[in-house]
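Lab notebook: predicted structure, single chain.

Context: the supervisor wants predicted structures on file for every construct in the current expression panel, including those that have not yet been purified. This is the next one on the list. No modifications to the sequence; it matches the entry in the shared construct table.
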Amino acid sequence: MDNEIGDFDDKHLAVMEAILPYAKSKPQKNLEELQIENITRNTSVRFFLLPEWAPNFPPYNLARLVSVCKNAGYKSDAVDLNIKAYRQWEKWNLEFNPWHGSQEWRWTGQSYHDSIHAHLAPLLEEYITAIEEDNIDVVGFTLYYCNQEPTQWMAEQIKLKYPHVKILVGGPQCHTFPPGEDQWYYDYVVSGEGEQMLLRILSQIEKDEVKETQQVLTQPPGMRLNLDTMPMPDYSSFDIHEYNMPNGVNTEFSRGCVAKCVFCSETHFWKFRGRSSSSLLNEVLTLNERYGIDFIWFLDSLVNGNIKELRAFCKGIIASGIKIAWTGYARCHKAMDEEYFDDLAASGCKHLNYGIESGSNKVLEDMDKKITVDIIERNLELGHNVGIQAQTNWIVGFPTEKLQDIYESMTLCHRNSDYLQNVSTGHGFTEPPDTIISQNSAKYDMLRSYYLDNWINTDFTSSKLHRMLRIIYFNILLEQTVSYDNEKTLQNFDTTRFCSVQFKTDKNISVEYEDFDFDIIDSGPSDFANSLMNEVWPLLRLFWRSRGAFSASFNIDPKDTYSVFGDRLAGDVSMTGTFKISETGNFVAKFQYAYKQPEDAWRYVDFSNETSIAAQNARMQSIPGNKGEVVSNFEEKRHKFLKDLDEHRKIDFTFDKRILIKGSW
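Prediction complete. Output recorded below exactly as produced.
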């Protein structure tokens, strides 16, 4: 045993020597230490994670909270009902995989109750009963938009059955759409970093100082916990063999984000700070030495928020001699050169999940991404050269995105398919209330009149229906695009129900970016109709330029789109027809479009009066001179927007149009 300890100490010494040239020399300023008083307590705490969530690793957030509670003297454990449900779902006799990324909408709203709840409820009821059997005093839930429905149901049942049990809820959904008093079953709602506020709540419960009304605890603006002072996560509640990666865990290198992308809310509800590389290395080496953990997934918004500290971590892992693999989310960054990627790979980096969002420099600038297409392509290439796979996330239908811009996004994917392992096209741009864009939506030409329960722009050329078609066409391209390892295509869902393509040659070339006028159809009854019908042209143009002569037939039907996207994105628009083009560029397009507008298609939405800390921070950054206060002339603005809404309600975009176009490219 003494030799083992000596070897471990030597390993740590080698690590510290390797990271010194790269690690930060001073701790970050204005960080608060986590205050933990370790005394014996009487209160027992159980944390739950409900589906839907990733089934790959035990939940890091619960492991962290259990550790905090135990270090403060509370009896504490956690139950991952997500993984338990995941191991059962194949017996539910569903026609879909509820954990597939394209099906997450089924966990939201009424869709959950219609298709999943009856199958999940027996498992939840089993663990509700166990609360009394195990003498649990406090129950805590982590709330995401994708587990809100089952969590609310379980919390309500617990409160009805055991009124004395105190229920806490925290997590991202509590920042964006915090539960109100109508969710009466939540005794405490935590908005912000939960560790210190959790200890305050438990102290109140321990001292029997609980108030009768729901308590909402919000992290003070600017407060940032020092991540280096956190106790090591406690995974004793979980059977790691239940997970898809039984040799792996999650951890965090930082919280927050160094960027201020206008579409993102996370940067506004906590400020960026990172752990020291020495603290992280100590955790990773300990997990490897004690438990054989050799795969790490960093949960950070971006693992390379501090470029130098990530380099120090890599150097430390290399010096330690341990063999691990790791992955995480990252920004494309111009400072990540060939030598940097060499160190990433040598330390065990296997994948980086880049938030690329768009292949258009114009849209990237509008998003305030502070990257360019050249930087993106360079990072993808350099990563590929050293064996780091690229997973990518995209935002389809950003408010300033035009057909030229989505054409450039498609072109980027096709040009770099040899470097891509995954392309996630998401579910189209949505408008969280606590973002720069939602707090100054007029700057992005977005109406406060929502159409089909989703935003629409001022000239009616970007609606939920436009974004749905754009995502379908993007994925038709990806269906025909093979990943770097030639093992799979890159689409997010099966598009064969929407489109069949026959290429006439084996040609498949990388093409340069080009400017092109996609306003080809102008014979519809409105700009809304014309723009909707023109959505298909970027796909057709790129297919011809890269693959040569081809023919395609389309059958986009509401029955299929609702089954793929649900109410959130699907609508009652259909598109059928054929397109044929020769190698010389002569084409014939025959399309039939139909759309029937439902009643009550319009409603009013305005986020300028949101009072969350995140919304206040977003206003400060989106409105010059604003210090976080709500818009002073809110009622005046509201009156104007309601008058606009009355005018919009007179508009009916219903149309039925047959198109025949012959041309030459």
